[in-house]
Amino acid sequence: MKLAGRTWKFGADIDTDAIIPARYLNTSDPQELAGHCMEDADPSFPARVKPGDIIVAGKNFGCGSSREHAPIAIKAAGVSCVIAGTFARIFYRNAFNIGLPIFESYEAAAEISEGDEVEVEAATGRIINRTTGKTYTATPVPPFMQQIIAAGGLIRYVAEKVRKDV
Q: Which residue among 24, 45, 122, 161 has its CA within the 20 to 30 Å range from the CA of 75?
């Protein structure tokens, strides 16, 4: 799986309240959440993000509460993946559970600039900054997790497996 898009750059310790503010948690509708995604970190983000865009952030992305709303909002906004120095563990798990690919790379997170065109190869963890020509390495997404992402998340993956086994 290859992902490619224009980057949005955020700093370190972006918590789940910055990703989707608590005042919008009265809904679980992905499109409603997408309309407010990252608005406290960058008020222009919800209106300007395009399908396929990539979020790049510093360390500890997704810290804070364990709400699944955060990766759901990012995915529903059309973001193809997130590259960060590190991820909060609960966000990491929630992202894969809902089918949002994420990649850890300190070097890529530090050096990629906002607006750069970036390509990510999930199977190899290779991150290519098309703007600068520089290549980075992230931990590759294991094959079974690529299947979860391709299915659209863990629940859909399990449902497909059960259908095939019945």
A: 161
